[in-house]
Amino acid sequence: MRDYRLFIDGQKIGTIANGKTKEFEITAGQHSIVAKIDWCSSPELTFDLNDTDTKTVLIGGFKNSNWIMPLTIVIIVLCFVLTYAFDSDYLLIPIIPIFLIMSYYLTIGRKNYLTMTEI
User: Fold this and answer.
1) 73 and 57 share a domain?
2) What is the pLDDT of residues 93-107, one digit of tens each?
C-alpha cells in the first residue's frame, strides 16, 4: 500500500512501490543499501560494485508476512465472535502471541521489518 524509501550510503535515492521494478545508477565502489517504510527498515545490505556490474535487490515485507497477516485477522475475528457467543473472556488469550509478534516488529525488531536479498 505504501512505497518503500531506498537509501544508499545514508542518502535517499528514491522510492519504489510494492511489486514494481526500478533502476538506479550509482558509482563504482563499496555501498550499503537500506529500505525503509515509516520508522521500520530492512537490515543493511553491503555490496561492492564495479563499473560494469549490475546488482538486483529484492525488497519485501517481514519474514512470513504472507501467512502471518491473514492468520492474524482470522484469529482476531474468531476470538471476538467466540467470546461473544460463549460469554467468556478467556477466549481472547490466543490474541496474546499475535500481539507479541506485532509488537516485536514495531519496536525491537523494527530494523528487520523489511527483508532485502540480493539476487
Assistant:
1) no
2) 878 888 888 888 889
